[in-house]
Specification:
This protein is mostly helical. The protein contains 8 helices and no strands.
Length: 127
């Protein structure tokens, strides 16, 4: 963040930004603990979260597109919100490209760890 942006922010905005950063770091710490304790469960929950973020993001982009096609002037207030939803499409893509539901094999057995040197993407999960 540049100095001019920080200078124009109100104290309440700076406080909200600090709380959001602390919440994000706490979430990453909880994810790391979850991966250490139960990798299959933590990574499958990460996959579900990725689908949630992707669904909200794509839904916002679709609604924004519909408003643009309909030339709806009443939705000027909602336009910025839907654009902000659409900004998270790359975040959801990164969460889903890694395919965390199958990456648990990298953490579960010695054989998987040896195989992880070449690939962490098993063809199918073991039964």
């Amino acid at each position: 963040m540049t100095t001019s942006m920080t200078a124009s922010m109100t104290p309440s905005m700076v406080r909200v930004q600090k709380v959001a950063l602390a919440t994000g770091l706490a979430g990453l710490a909880v994810l790391a603990v979850g991966v250490a304790l139960a990798p299959a469960r933590a990574l499958s929950n990460l996959l579900v979260g990725g689908y949630l973020v992707l669904g909200l993001s794509v839904g916002g982009v679709v609604l924004l597109s519909l408003l643009a096609v309909a030339n709806a002037g009443w939705a000027v207030v909602l336009k910025r919100i839907f654009e902000a939803f659409g900004a998270f499409v790359p975040v959801a893509a990164l969460l889903l490209i890694w395919r965390p539901s199958q990456a648990w094999a990298c953490f579960t057995s010695g054989r998987a760890r040896r195989r992880a040197a070449t690939s962490c993407w098993p063809e199918r999960p073991p039964s």
